[in-house]
What we know:
Chain A contains 14 helices and two strands, in the order αααααααββααααααα. By secondary structure, chain A is mostly helical.
Amino acid sequence: MEMKKLLNDSKKLASQYTTWVTFVGLLLLLSVLTKGNALRWNSIRNLLIAESVRSFAALGVGMIIITKGIDLSIGYVVCLTASVAASFAQNPDYASAIYAGQSFPLIVPVVAAVAAGGLFGLFNGYLIAYGKLPPFIATLGSMSIAKGLQLIYTKAAVVGSLNQNFKNISQGSVGPIPNLIIYVIIAAFIVWVVLRHTRQGTNFYAIGGNAQAARVSGINVERELMMVYTYAGILYGIAGTLLASRLGLANSLTANGMELDAIAAVTVGGVSQSGGVGSVSGMMVGVFTMGLINYGMSFLGVDSYYQQLVKGFIIIVAVYFDMKKYARRS
Amino acid sequence: MKKLVAVLLVLALLGTAVFAQGSSEAKSDKVKIGALIRNLNEQFVKDYADNLRKLAAEKGVDLNLQDAQGDVARQLDQLNTLITQGYKYFVIIPQDTSATEQMAQQIKAAGGGAAFSNIQPSVAALKVGKDFYLASSPELVAGQYQAQIIDEYFAKNPEKAPGKVLNMLYLLGQLGHPAQISREAGLLDTLKSLGYTVNLIARDTADWSPDKAQEKMDTWLAAHRGKFNIVVAQNDGMALGAVESLITNGLVDNDPSDGTILTFPVIGIDATADALNSMDQNKLYATVLQDSVGQSSTAFELAYAMATKGSATGMTAWGIAPASQVISEEPANDPAVIAQCYLVPFKPVTKANYKDLM
Amino acid sequence: MESTFALEMESITKVFPGVRALDGVTFRVKPGTVHALMGENGAGKSTLMKCLFGIYKEDEGTIKLNGEIHHFKDSHDALQNGVSMIHQELSNVPERSVAQNIYLGREPLKKTGLIDHKRMNEDTKELLKRLEIDIKPDCRIGSLSISMQQTCEIAKAVSYNSRVVVMDEPTSSLTDNEVAHLFKIIRQLKAHNVAVVYISHKMEEIFAIADEVSVMRDGKMIGTYPVSDLSNDRLINLMVGRDANLRFPTVKSSIGEEILRVENLTALNSRSFKDISFSLKRGEILGIGGLVGAQRTELMEAIFGVRAIREGKIFIKGEEVSNITPRKAIEHGLGMITEDRRGSGIFPLLDISTNTSIASLKEYLSKIGLLQHKQLKEEAAKYNEALRTKTPTMETLIQNLSGGNQQKVIISRWLMTLPDILIMDEPTRGIDVGAKYEIYQIMCQLVEQGKAIIMVSSEMPELIGMSNRVMVLCNGRCTGMLDKQQCSQEAIMRLATQFM
């Protein structure tokens, strides 16, 4: 009986910390394979920068998945918000600028992109909460709408030649710490406070865990769902701004496929597709685990075809554990 | 416990996969060249990369080739990674023109240089330093050659375009792609200057993909049958998709005397093997050769020269000398950087010369 | 070797998380007898049968048929081995003929591989004749009466050469004449040396048809008795296990002023409840009785604002509350423990603490609107301690608790909102007897504190034992209000079936 209990406990521990075990394991593996080269500050800095924008998308969709939703529109919404931000930050003397000859204060591109993202989120949330559309379908539709709006707004052209002030938003750094990393830390902290320390955060978990019970418990399920998609949209808006600022451009290919990266990352990070489970730390570890895989493989010069393969396996394994952990009582 | 074991297994699997690739890492004194390639899923890019690998093997160069899979952000990350690993000289097919200046600045900061192919770098990118080169074929030219091929065809068959009016179905590459924009401009401007009136009966993207092109054509043929006299595609894949659609929809006159058994000529770009085959069967009318071997060889020789001799300024690479006269397309339109531009020619591929490439 | 028993289930134990559903149950049936299996709801009868048919896998114990050990993968496997079940719900294909239904999935074939309809119909005719059933084999089964359809199912069981036939409440939808016909068929089966396991709550049927009776209670087998040794009272006593009046604590509250009044409440859905009026006073437990489909749950949900109403008024503490939503209901001091604990009660993946506090988070916010985790946790723990919820820690996920403890957490949740009125829909469903008694005690304490409870229950003894008054619904209408003195099983039953 004692043995059995011990075994059970270690089992529980391993499954509870799958995310961390994977992350630390990969880190060790990579440092061995590169004889420590991959873990120098420069490399880590590269990794953090590379994953920074995705972190915003992951935080957004992470909250949504906690409410048992999904968001397929991330990639194109980020693409749209990046284009909106970029359009207000082009050098005024650039002939093919969207607002050629006009220059805007730095706050305009940021506010415009965040507003665009937030509105899209609100739209998604309204369809899902009040229109009762399944999240998969609603965001599938809005994904295409975002893509269409982006093409119409930019006339399918690259929005380039961005001014240096705007680029500095994400290309600058404070001491050795890149600005992007600071933004991620702030965003993660705020999301953590919302999820962990506000009534609304608890409501998100409750809705994801059992929407009917949440309703009976006096939670305004519709309003909270609409809010979670709006929050996510705002995060996508920030992601778009930072991406445009970092790349110095936005085009119709920007951020394509980011929804899959973000969903995969938070899933690896233990945010359960069955709803009601997940933490900010898990989401961030998930993002950096996926980042580590990307980064490690490209550091080692692994063929991109194999990279896809390995990533696919990792996602499947992570979800397998997730299902084992939470679906055993169905 | 089972789970822990499973996790370890995955890690081990991962380890071996990575190790198999990584174990060849123990090269030390070899010349190191990084290659940043935008998307290996495209035939041209793949041919380009294959030739790079071949050249690197011949010269014993440590070539680290990274596939950005169509993502600007990923390409920047890969650049960072390679710089951290000590790579200084690069052959680059950028994902986007607008990001090239930033890339050039990072490489310069690391004390290196780069040659850009296929997607044009910006003038500003070349202005970052003397060690940044264009080794490419201007996309405008591809469009211009398409226009010339069209002009030749209708000069021989004037009854098919009365009053020099072209009613065109135009299949575009991915919207916003630099090649999509430049090829279109080159085509339409040249046709106009040759005295044609162009009506774009239909113009839409098929994302470089043959099957999407075929679908699009099927739809267009249902809507616009008999209202057009020319089909143009921005690459061969889409052109071949269009050819299939025309054949299944019975738009065939079985008269190869005009160079094609189709009722209307279809024109592509790239001169892939499939395209040349189709020309051989009198289906596809013509295409334009984008020279993957020429571009990659030129870029490689420039990077190799920089890595071995410290500079490539003024050299002749793959038999091509630096340009001396400005052309209308960026970045070779700026006299300040014209000496850094190696213009690899496009070639129109028609009935007259296609057999040379087969 | 011929065994003396057609079916032997030896020391069957089945444990669900937190509940010992079967505890070493031994059940033996002789061939050629009708063996009644008796017990209250939740005694473990259906779990035992599910183990027999392979729907559940028993944790311990063996199952023997004619002395040979068997374990069936599923009910089809059981059927192949001569064990069949006649369900409460019919499971035939209504659009096909009687013969086609009986030979479904094993139609006799001609040499060409096509179905031999002629042989199938003749075999069926033979079979029906043998059982003295007067039905034509080619008649569409959906056109027959329910009892005739049931008879066909029995014929099907016989056609498989079933040695054991289990009948689960076979007479629940039959008229007296039909029951008589069914019994005739059962006697036919007996004559063919078939063992019949007969599950029913109807005492008179047991005494009419059964040879032996096995009684189960709380997952245990109490005993097997020849029916001739039993009296009606003795049988009830065996099933209940103690005198009925000891199963419930005494409610010692004093009735106060009116706290809830419902006037002419009618559901938006026209097939649901209509024109319901009642009032509830402090210190009172109002029982709501009725059969399945009487719309009791729907009425409770409407009062709590989960379900839409067409007309009617709800007054809480004298104040009319219009357009009620769960949030408004909670603000006015209502709480609701739902019938479907899994579906609308627990948050399975959240911990006990959160499950307890979820409806009262509003009261535990700091000045800047953040949750005060420490107070929340302490308060949640306090309520759970008071109800003696058994849990390792407050951080344990609620899904890891037994049904009874989950129920206590949900009661804690509502007590934490400091309600004046608690709606409890089937508060003891799926809970061990011990935990049931504790929940009754909690209910007593609450009304003694001057709160009021509305309790919906399908268990008659519970309704009668706990309620000050019982309102009975039938088909969405109120058919009567019984006070403590008038309250009896017969009275409730009569009102519950008034419109049937």
